[in-house]
Specification:
There is one protein chain. The protein has about 325 residues and is an alpha/beta fold. It is built from ten helices and 14 strands. Strands 1, 2, 3, 4, 6, 7, 8, 9, 11 and 12 form a ten-stranded mixed sheet that branches. Helix 6 crosses helix 7.
């Protein structure tokens, strides 16, 4: 009996390996048109929650006790809009508790109904679309492909960039650089949300088995800055924050990601979507709505170093909105 079990387990293990290899081969063989993931999710789909959750009120966490508003922001929005939030608080003579985290932090506090406003650096995924939650797009910011400053390559074709991260290009010499191997570096965060790195390759299975994964933004920039063979990606504001001198941003098909019009006019393919939430219905907070309106109206005043293209500019160049939420790229 033990021998039979052992043979069965051996078969399962071998079968699992075959399935994994087949999936990898299938992913690598997909045509170029299918490699890009979705930029946005369907705003009409709302995740169902239990009746008790629907009836629960907003309850601030201890750090926000006594505040008029509780706000949590991801690490991209926090430094960019905190000065505007503080200005709003002074003008209105109100107390606003603002904490910094990640998209996961924001999602968790929405789910726990612990904040009036949550900020994301990605478009909402289907699980983020909770009943009563509305999304407001502040703007977008470019994500640049980055290499070591001594790398002679300055420009890369979009098709070649995807081939590099799929592991189908092995040497920089194939792209006009030195005859050294390429080391792709990835930070595969927010896997269930559209946009961000999924605009490069739609899912993690498409990335090269040789991909070196990192968990944090500083790790991404430090690794690329210290490895002449490496290529990674990061939002421009974070490149400027952690490595303006130590890494080089590549043009894609001749388009400079740092130029303000590149993303606005749809000429550059990689970007983050910066989103704020409010509640409607039972948990609606009028002051929260006024703050978000204030931030949207004044987003053009954000410091240029953040590289954020405000929603008002995107509307002028044909990006698609439903209410305040960005839902489609320009044609």
């Amino acid at each position: 009996m033990g021998k039979v079990v052992a043979e069965a387990l051996k078969f399962v293990a071998v079968f699992s390996i075959i399935v994994a290899l087949a999936s990898s081969v299938w992913a690598q063989a997909q045509p170029e048109e299918s490699l890009e993931g979705p930029a946005f999710s369907d705003p009409s789909k709302v995740y169902e929650m239990p009746k008790k959750w629907l009836e629960d009120p907003i309850e601030y966490e201890p750090e926000a006790a006594g505040s008029d508003l509780a706000v949590t922001l991801d690490q991209h929005l926090f430094p960019a809009i905190l000065p505007l939030i503080n200005k709003f608080a002074r003008e209105r003579n109100v107390k606003i508790s603002v904490s910094e985290g990640t998209c996961g932090t924001s999602a968790g506090r929405l789910l726990r109904k612990a904040v009036d406003i949550a900020g994301f650096c990605c478009p909402p995924g289907e699980l983020d679309r909770l009943p009563g939650v509305e999304f407001h797009t502040l703007g977008v910011e470019p994500i640049a492909l980055i290499v070591h400053p001594n790398n002679p390559v300055d420009d890369i074709k979009l098709e070649d960039a995807r081939r590099v991260f799929r592991g189908l290009v092995f040497s920089w010499a194939e792209l006009g650089g030195d005859d050294v191997s390429i080391q792709p570096v990835g930070r595969l965060h927010c896997k269930l949300r559209p946009g961000h790195w999924r605009l490069l390759l739609g899912n993690e299975d498409l990335f090269s088995p040789r991909l070196e994964e990192v968990g944090t933004i500083p790790d991404m920039i430090t690794l690329v800055a210290n490895n002449p063979r490496a290529i990674g990606y990061e939002a421009i504001q974070m490149i400027r924050k952690y490595g303006a001198i130590s890494v080089k941003m590549l043009k894609v098909d001749g388009v400079d990601p740092a130029h303000p019009s590149s993303v606005q006019y749809g000429r550059y393919p990689f970007y983050r979507t910066l989103v704020l939430t409010t509640w409607k219905g039972k948990n609606e907070n009028r002051l929260a709505g006024e703050l978000v309106d204030y931030l949207l109206e004044n987003s053009g005043l954000l410091e240029k170093r953040f590289g954020i293209v405000p929603a008002s500019s995107l509307r002028k160049t044909g990006w698609k909105f439903e209410g305040d939420e960005l839902v489609g790229e320009p044609e």
